[in-house]
Protein 1
Amino acid sequence: MSKYNLHYAGLKEGIHEFDYLLNQDFFDMFEHPIVQGAHVLIHLTVNKSATLVVLNIKAAGTVHVQCHRCLEEFEMSLNITKTIIVKTSGEDKEVDDDNIILADNAHDIHLAQHFYDLVSLAIPIKVTHPDNGCNEETLRTLEKYMVKNENTNDPRWDILKNVSNN
Ligand SMILES: [Zn+2]
């Protein structure tokens, strides 16, 4: 995790740029890895001034997800930007905006959780293929299977059968 610590105290005032690769090893460091396969490049621009550190995060790449509709797995593209303003002093309770955080201590900002959250929030709860790009054949097979399943497992059908027998 330590390579995701930004040692801002050691940076000169001005602009600094960093690159990170978030692969599956990164997501596996968390208790609940949200993806099974990832290749996300982070480009971080740090603008340090006397009183603030501004983080400009650009994340681009793909995550391996399962389509909620046709159940096929696919690589979902991500392209996200987020600006986080880091206060390097003050009280935690003064920070109530999602985009403003307090530095973790007097020297470092732990970026890993912010990167993780950024990618997590970009993945919808019900992820589906973009542009209705589902596999039509798989959808048809699934529909057939579901209809068949309903007919055989739904006890209401048995009741109806009994009614028609009388
Ligand atoms: Zn799909």
Note: The mean pLDDT is 85.
Protein 2
Amino acid sequence: MNGKIAFIGAGNMAGAFAGGLVSSGMAPSLVSLSAPHMEKLDALRARLGVSVTTSNADNVRDADTVVLAVKPQVMEKCLTELMSEIGSMEGKLVISVAAGITVERLSELLGGHRRIVRFMPNTPALIGRGMTGMFAAPGLGDDDLRTAEKIASAAGKWVWVKTEDEINTVTALSGSSPAYFFMIMEAMVEYGVSRGMDGKSARDIVEGGAIGSILLAEKSPEKTLAELREAVTSKGGTTFAALEAFRKGNLPGTVKDGLKACEDRAAEMAKLF
Ligand SMILES: NC(=O)c1ccc[n+]([C@@H]2O[C@H](COP(=O)([O-])OP(=O)(O)OC[C@H]3O[C@@H](n4cnc5c(N)ncnc54)[C@H](OP(=O)(O)O)[C@@H]3O)[C@@H](O)[C@H]2O)c1
């Protein structure tokens, strides 16, 4: 990937992707960020050596790729102002990480621009362990696809989806998923504390179990998740007792209901912006 990357926004997501690019070897002089206030910009400049400005127009003018990393609610105002200053995004690949703003809507806000990719990342991107679902506008060239992959790789793993609706499914499966895992972990820690354990020990134990299980799954691609579960479940044993209680409370059904609510909300949000 050649050329300059300009991030609009200096929050969690811009910091995660910009930080990942610099730590994976991209020259800091090729990365720039803009936001209304200097506070976060100054911190990113100090940490990464990238250039920063409070002017979105100055930021994107000579960029080859522009990453839109602002909240969905401010996207319209932000792009309207930007386009009135620079006129066109011609020659630039535009990547949006904003939830709920479709390629069609982005194209409209960008005066009919078509070189657009949508990202649906998640917060583990902050530590380089993100999962990003990506959707490319129809007809995007190979160079643009490779550039998007390089930027997504800077924050972890990625996967292309074939239809834009699938971005909403990715939101349910990974975009929002850290919160689901944290909720389950919270309940486990609360149980440990209710049995007399101190909070720190309970959290250390729960985290250890979670990290180990996830790494075991990652390192065992030849096994299904059901096989991994069965490998720790002897009939009549302790794990079996726990899983029977989970099934009785319809945990799998509850999880699927939650994912459906998430996906439905993502689809509704696409109509709002
Ligand atoms: N966090 C997640 O888990 C997650 C997951 C998937 C997708 N996303 C998407 O990622 C996007 C960014 O989220 P985030 O968590 O990084 O948000 P964030 O930490 O709140 O950062 C938002 C940034 O936007 C800047 N900003 C506000 N108005 C602006 C403008 N007019 N021009 C330029 N910059 C402006 C803010 O600047 P100041 O600092 O100066 O106020 C701030 O740096 C959102 O659209 C969200 O939907 C987030």
Note: The chain has two domains: 5-163, 177-270.
